[in-house]
Design a protein that fits this description.
Largest sheet: 4 strands, antiparallel
Order of helices and strands: EHHHEEHEH
Helix content: 25-40%
Number of helices: 5
């Protein structure tokens, strides 16, 4: 049974396996991974995970641009990531409240639908009455 897990250094190897499956240069929605994030080293990965946690902390909420990140995990396998963006900032207005991505080998199992339902429940628990949505064409499978 899958679960939503806050990003953690404990799952570094499993996350890197999922990251490698996307292939170089491909964007991985739902993980909050930016072009300058260095996740290859243990220290870089830990710094990235810490920055994700800070984006959902009290200061981010007070500033009006918080984001809650969760990894879609089953056992020790990271299937994907999902992000719940809070606040009316430009990023939310451009990309919507929710972003997610499922690694190619885990697609077509209903994991995104399941994770989206859990995150929408979390948003409703935070007082949401509406949720904006943005979609792009699916990522083609790696060669």
């Amino acid at each position: 049974m899958p679960e939503l897990v806050a990003p953690t250094v404990r799952l570094r190897s499993a996350w890197l396996e999922a990251h490698d499956e996307w292939g170089p240069g491909r964007h991985e929605d739902g993980f909050g991974l930016g072009p300058s994030d260095e996740v290859g080293s243990p220290d870089g990965f830990a710094a990235w995970v810490t920055s994700l946690a800070g984006q959902s902390g009290p200061e981010a909420v007070a500033a009006g641009h918080a984001c809650t990140y969760r990894w879609i995990v089953e056992g020790d396998r990271v299937h994907g990531g999902i992000a719940l963006r809070l606040g009316p900032d430009d990023h939310v207005l451009r990309f919507g409240h929710v972003g997610y991505g499922i690694r190619p080998s885990s697609r077509r199992r209903g994991l995104a639908t399941w994770a989206l339902g859990r995150m929408l429940d979390e948003g409703a628990g935070s007082g949401w009455s509406t949720c904006s949505w943005s979609a792009r064409p699916p990522t083609p499978p790696p060669h």
